[in-house]
Amino acid sequence: MSLSVAIEALNPSHDRRAFSCGVSVLDRYLSERANQDVKRRIGNCFVAVDRDAAAIAAYYTLSAASLPFASLPEDETRRLPHYPVLPATLIGRLAVDLRYQGSGLGSSLIADALHRSIRAAPASFSLLVDAKDSNAAAFYRKHGFIPLTSRPQSLFLPIATALKLFG
User: A Pfam family in this protein (predicted)?
Assistant: First the structure.
């Protein structure tokens, strides 16, 4: 499938009604709560819009987070300062409409999140995700994310590693 998408900040002109990723909580979030979270500065929502169909093909959210130093695997902490917490950027939600799943769009959203994190004024050590289930965790592990020692469904990807992976 050849896609022509633009990734942009969610705004009221985006039609969210037809979006369906197969996970009702993620569908409801986009249609009912995303705008409110953006207005309240809880998180930002970015949508991949199919230019040909004028439809939301996928979305993800970003917000500030912290990563407890003690939850990182030992091999990741060797070269880090021993601060109690490290700054992180949380991908709170990531969903791809059923019509676009398998197209590589999820990977494109991770790359977009990485680039936005790099360009942000506050420093961020890593991208952080809380996978909703084992399939989601496997998707993130495939992209180089590492499980936290205390919570295996929570994974992180150091920005420095991501830069090597995604260029």
Answer: Acetyltransf_7
Please write the tens of the pLDDT for every residue from 56-98.
999 999 999 999 999 999 998 998 999 999 999 999 999 999 9
60 is catalytic: no
* Full DSSP string of 14-43: S--TT---S-HHHHHIIIIIHHHHHHTTS-
Q: Is 62 helix (H, G, I), strand (E, B) or coil?
A: strand
Domains of the chain, CATH where assigned: 5-166 (3.40.630.30)
**CA dihedral over 9, 63, 29, 95, signed as positive or negative:** positive
pLDDT band at 6 (very low <50, low <70, confident <90, very high): very high
Tell me if 128 sits within 8 A of 144, measured CB to CB: no
Nearest of 153, 152, 55, 50 to residue 108 by alpha carbon:
50
pLDDT tens column, 103-144: 999 999 999 999 999 888 788 999 999 999 999 999 999 999
